[in-house]
Amino acid sequence: MSTLRRRIYCGSKGLLPSGYEQLEYLRGNGTQYIDTGVALKSNSQIKLIAIDFTTNSAFGVDTPNGQYVIAASGNDMYYRLFSDTGTMVAKTTGKHTYSFLGEKGYYDGSLVYTGGTPTDSTLNLYLFARNISGSATYFGHGNISLFEIDNHKFIPCRRKSDNELGMYETVSGSFLTNQGTGSFIAGPRVGGVNS
Question: Exposed, middle or buried by CB within 10 Å (0-12, 13-18, 19+), for 169?
Fold first, then answer.
């Protein structure tokens, strides 16, 4: 017998169960990360909405064929797909959309990068860090508002029962929390300010 869960609509970003409140973003300060539980496929489609990402990895994984990463480096955002040299895109303040569709990288909808031929990975993609052989490295500083890979959507939120911060993954219905140290910082609640 299945249990019907009451869901609430949370803006244009998706659905969350009633025990969660959607946040405009989660902020990592260089010690936190989330294991998405999702490994990249050669035809993966990725979308990241980030605000003022200042250093290191917004997301990433190292594969036997090289890196798959979007990271902040100095005044630029760095796209790299597998063994090629990658490309830099001038970083500006505010909210921006970074995406990969196969071997092509986009910044706010404009093609900025064409990388090597994608291959499947056996390692999970990490948010706020890069997964190198199962270890989190290159921890990022910045805010993530939304992350999607294929049909998986990761929504920043707070679990109301204990105020735990994390990302709610809509396919499995999992609440993913910090696997690193320290604590994420909550952005404002969607539809109002934090209480």
Answer: buried
